Amino acid sequence: MVAGGTARGSRNKVEIGWCEMVDIPSLGLSQVHAKMDTGAVTSSIHATRIKPISRDGKPYVEFWFRLNSGEKPKRYEALLVDRRMVRSSNGEKQDRYVISAQFCFGKLCWNGQLTLANRRSMAFPLLIGRRTLRRGFLVNSGRRWVLGKPAI
């Protein structure tokens, strides 16, 4: 169930644009520019200096992320939930770390997964894939910022 929103498989899907602002409260991130990608299975976030670590005997991953181009990258840690082979946008297979994260599109929040990948050459630092979108969203490829425009 999407908190405050629709249930998975509901006929009342929330229309969103091909790009939206997404919050990731589990990482302390707000207003991340995200591209909706119905061709991608799993969501992905830009990460550099990715390194597996251990916290209290549990597997974690450390990575660096910069929300805006004028800022310095910040260090983040998240519980490591998986490693999997992912076919990137250029067709290459990559072994990626997978973390659990909470996503919010406006007031609609849910838990999901993110792969960590260097998205430096991509226009958006966050890509939202089908596993996330099938939770009750309908992507309108002719619209953007349906849930709110970014601050300029």
Keyword list:
Cathepsin D, subunit A, domain 1, disordered N terminus, nine-stranded mixed beta sheet
**Helix-and-strand structural type:** mainly beta
The percent of residues in helical segments reads under 10%
Question: What does the main sheet amount to?
Answer: 9 strands, mixed
Q: How many domain regions?
A: 1
The CATH fourth-level homologous superfamily: Acid Proteases
How widely separated are the two ends? Answer: 33 Å
CATH class: Mainly Beta
Regions with pLDDT < 50 over 5+ consecutive residues? Answer: 1-7
Number of strands: 11
What's the average pLDDT?
Answer: 87
**SSE series:** EEEEEEEEEEHE
Shape: globular
Strand content: over 45%
If helices are DSSP runs of H or I spanning 4 or more residues, what is the number of helices?
1
- Rg (CA only): 15 Å
> Which strands sit side by side, in order, in the main sheet?
2-3-10-4-9-8-7-6-5
What is CATH's topology name?
Cathepsin D, subunit A, domain 1
Named CATH architecture: Beta Barrel
Structural topology:
Layout: E1 14-17, E2 19-24, E3 29-36, E4 43-46, E5 48-55, E6 58-65, E7 74-87, E8 93-105, E9 108-117, E10 126-128, H1 130-133, E11 137-140
Parallel strand pairs: 1-11, 3-10, 4-9
Antiparallel strand pairs: 2-3, 4-10, 5-6, 6-7, 7-8, 8-9
Give a brief rundown of this model.
The chain has 1 helix and 11 strands. By secondary structure, it is mostly beta strands.
